[in-house]
Amino acid sequence: ELSVSLLAVIVIVCGLALVAVFLFLFWKLCWVPWRNKAISSNLAVLQSEADCTKENMADKLKDAGALSFLEAAVKISHTSPDIPAEVQMSMKDHIMRRTRIQRQTTEPASSTRHISFKRHLPRQMHVSSMDYGMDPPAVAEPPTSIGRIKPELYKQKSVDSEDPKKEAAKTCGKINFTLKYDYENETLTVRILRAFDLPAKDFCGSSDPYVKIYLLPDRKRKFQTRVHRKTLNPTFDESFHFPVPHEELASRKLHLSVFDFDRFSRHDMIGEVILENLFEASDLSRETSIWKDIQYATAESVDLGEIMFSLCYLPTAGRLTLTVIKCRNLKAMDITGYSDPYVKVSLLCDGRRLKKKKTTIKKNTLNPTYNEAIIFDIPPENMDQVSLLISVMDYDRVGHNEIIGICRVGVNAEGLGRDHWNEMLAYPRKPIAHWHPLVEV
Q1: What single-letter DSSP state applies at residue 351?
Q2: pLDDT tens per residue across span 237-256
Q3: pTM for this one?
Q4: CATH numeric code, 173-296
Q5: What stretches pass through the bilayer (predicted)?
Q6: Mapping DSSP to helix (H, G, I), strand (E, B) and coil, where does residue 214 land?
Q7: Could you give the CA distance from residue 318 to residue 322 in angstroms, rounded to a whole number?
């Protein structure tokens, strides 16, 4: 019995030993390689991320300080006695070819003709500090807050608020007249028939209207109808005769001014009508009835005449040429009924006059012909800062010269002056000519 129990104990111990050996071998063969594999994969991921970071840093350093790094490398290679000079130079050339170097731009030399122009500028343009790169300059955006309402985005045009130009162009009733030309006597007959729906100028709600008639540009000869008392729909039925040659009719304008008569004060102007092309309104061979709106006006518009000039700009040379060609229908400034006109051209920059030049004087004429060129040297970068003021002057031997009329051309000008300037810039090296009406100062 003792031997049997001892044998059973030995068998159990041997079984446990075998089980322990089997578990140790299983752990050694299976669990440890998988653990090492996971650790090695994690280390590989960390190593790859570190390598990427190093490569990114190297790229940034290469872009930002490539030149300084190369210069330092070249200096070190020059001090090394083991490398021959020819090898060092070839290495430097090879590295410089493979490195992207920022393109260097040079400032164009300014023309000597433009030195005087820049000296007169109120504020100098520092051309040396200008950036000629392709990237646009960064614009600082104003800070905005979320949820803030911008009222300007929701503005709507009010019905009551009218455009000032429309306000100035409003009508003040209508006027009816006829035109007829007598070819034998060379006389234009203007017959004022009636007016309709005139505005009230008196406290009683009525007016005392009458009409003045001019055939521009001649203002010396004028006619006037009778005054009609206390009515807004007067009937005139009066005829007036203007002697004028047939070839001058195309350049003449009919000017009708409607006034309200006041016995004790200055007469109030109701409005005016200007008919520029007489042949468009009627063939003038027979009497034709014409209705026109009376345009609002507070004073009689004076016809000062017109000037024709051409503009030409050469960008490569920086040269602006204004050619004064001729004037027509200028206002008479002398007691003889004529003027002694000349043209003065001023170069302006930000409201300041830099230079002025003038043409010759034409004696005793209202339609002078000049054909004279006036040249200004203006750099292309300053063309958007300048403008030209053209003044037609009347020369007086005694006393001051009087201004007949002016016009302005430039980027900041209005109407035809701005359009003429933009057309000149759009077609460089080509003279662009236009007629410009003269206005008061």
Answers
A1: T
A2: 999 999 988 888 888 888 89
A3: 0.46
A4: 2.60.40.150
A5: 6-27
A6: strand
A7: 13
